[in-house]
Amino acid sequence: MSDKTATLTIGDKSWDFPVKAGTIGPDVIDISKLYAQTGHFTYDPGFTSTASCESHITYIDGDKGVLLYRGYPIEQIAEHGDFLETCYLLLYGELPTPAQKADFVNRVTYHTMIHEQMSRFFSGFRRDAHPMAVMVGVVGALSAFYHDSTDISDPQQRMIASLRMIAKMPTIAAMAYKYHIGQPFIYPRNEYDYSSNFLHMCFAVPAEEYKVNPVLARAMDRIFILHADHEQNASTSTVRLAGSSGANPFACIAAGIACLWGPAHGGANEAALNMLQEIGTVDRIPEFIARAKDKNDPFRLMGFGHRVYKNYDPRARIMQKTCHEVLGELGLRDDPLLQVALELEKIALHDEYFVEKKLYPNIDFYSGITLRALGFPTTMFTVLFALARTVGWIAQWKEMVEDPSQKIGRPRQLFTGAGQRDYSPISQRR
Ligand code: SDX
């Protein structure tokens, strides 16, 4: 806590509020007593200036384009680490020793199967259901099968539920994909690493051996690392708010998946690829840039802009590099969509509208091209985002549950509706 205070003056009255300092980043004004002392609420639609919690997990410096997981820069983790090591780091706060890593991988590996009866949920959906609809439904149903890890007051059960979520999301995501394309489910295989196992469950068929390409598996693993956590974004805030009522972790993650689906959030990777396909060729880019700048046109450049990053999203740089690696490995280096994306980025970054509004490519701009090259349909892109973000959601949920100061989230409002009035019988209404 810093010894600074913030003074609020309304009319002839003034109040002092404590200012809290973090280890890095902006200080906060603690307004938890504001209403009690002043009779006023604050008003901040979209929470552009409001910290909802204290956290030790992830830090973003939007102006510098910095992203730290438990203090480690995303570039270093993506370069030298792997996704399960990142999961351990986000959950426990430190990088694992070799023994801790081996034990964690083992514990996750032995939770990758789901209850056999859960496979019946899928047949209740139409084959052409969006896989995100399936994910919301099936993940929400997990609490009906794993009620022995829903008592959130028990640290043991919290950790088992966390492991189960991390371990089972690839299995459920792969099943949603297989169901979508009418192929049989492929069971997890314990001899594979996390990302190879996921690719195998998605792309293997019973009719023949499927060999996982190690370059593509490494790219998949890095894509999971990039999407793992991101402070208090919309879906993470949804998970925290759901968890603040005491809801079980599976239900909270299902709520996070529902929120992530929106095109302004995790659905942007699907929307960005659809946009690149609609643009089609480099010569049509000016038409779309003009539309993105037109106040009367709701069109936005998908994969561009960010609430926090007012500089290049560090994840987008790594994603662009991964995109080149995957396309190179698959002999797709001249993918026309990549040419459109590179040219669109170049034009936008020199256009005064985007420069003035500090709009840069975000993680979703290059992920769609990469995921399509890996063999996924656009409808699976946000499912992959949800798979990776599950560890961030669960780490933030655990931190919220274990925070002694946490209470049920219940925002207030600025009411501008009708004041109190008496009911009039319908016979008297004209
Ligand atoms: C993710 O929060 C997170 O951390 C999210 C995420 C994560 O890892 O969890 O990083 C993942 O969601 C990335 C963002 C993916 N979304 C998109 O790519 C969709 C396109 N982007 C926009 O919808 C928008 O940039 C947002 C939603 C991402 C951010 O919007 P903000 O912060 O609410 O900003 P804003 O809408 O107020 O925009 C500020 C100005 C506006 O113009 P003015 O009203 O000031 O004149 O910039 C304009 C906007 O019109 N603008 C854009 C634009 N994004 C913002 N104009 C054209 N194209 C865009 N993409």
From TrEMBL:
Question: Has the keyword Acyltransferase been applied to this entry?
Answer: yes
Annotated pathway: Carbohydrate metabolism; tricarboxylic acid cycle; isocitrate from oxaloacetate: step 1/2
Name the PROSITE patterns on file: CITRATE_SYNTHASE
This entry carries the following GO cellular component terms, namely:
cytoplasm
* Domain of life of the organism encoding this protein: Bacteria
GO MF term set:
citrate synthase activity
Instruction: Give any single GO term for biological process.
Output: tricarboxylic acid cycle
UniProt lists the family membership as follows: Belongs to the citrate synthase family.
Q: Please report the name of this protein according to its UniProt entry.
A: Citrate synthase
* Naturally occurring in which organism (per UniProt): Segnochrobactrum spirostomi
The lineage, from the top, is: Bacteria, Pseudomonadati, Pseudomonadota, Alphaproteobacteria, Hyphomicrobiales
